[in-house]
TrEMBL record:
UniProt keyword annotations, A-Z: 2Fe-2S, Iron, Iron-sulfur, Metal-binding, Oxidoreductase
Protein name: (2Fe-2S)-binding protein
Keyword Iron-sulfur: yes
Organism: Microbispora amethystogenes
Top-rank taxon, per record: Bacteria
Matches recorded under Pfam families: Fer2 (PF00111), Fer2_2 (PF01799)
Gene3D superfamilies membership: 3.10.20.30, [2Fe-2S]-binding domain (1.10.150.120)
Domain 2Fe-2S ferredoxin-type intervals: 6-82
SUPFAM superfamilies linked: 2Fe-2S ferredoxin-like, CO dehydrogenase ISP C-domain like
Database matches in CDD domains: fer2
Amino acid sequence: MNETHHRVTLTVNGVVREATVPGRRLLSDCLRHDLGLTGTHVGCEHGVCGACTVLLDGEPVRSCLTFAVTVDGQEITTVEGLAQGGALSPVQRAFTECHALQCGFCTPGFLCTVTAFLRDNPAPSEEEALEAVAGNLCRCTGYQNILKAVHRAAEIQAAEIQAAELQAEEGGA
């Protein structure tokens, strides 16, 4: 039996992209195979590990549990889209500074998860940071440096906001 294919239009990392996919194509597979964005990793394919986490309209979702046709017309940010203008995002820089990755397989999911978390909670407590990353599995790091990276990213973001505010004040004076 021939499966019906559907045309989907997605804004991925700020770029409008189109793909023709079967109705049962997972978003993770669409991103990786149809759009060539291999930064989104597929681990368990059951939504447990979090390696496939991307931002859908700014919110973290498991792309291995999401059909591509259900997100037609929506905005997706993958790990490739976190850097802005060639510069690593504060979360990416913090993960690097704090050695919060080893093999790197889980890292894209953590980066997307932490990016959304810090947007909503820019100064998390230790408990809040732990809860935020608890849905992503890492078999290498032991999580200590990942938690350090969450707090370091919050510091970097706060410093960038303060610098931008200072610059705006000086420019308006």
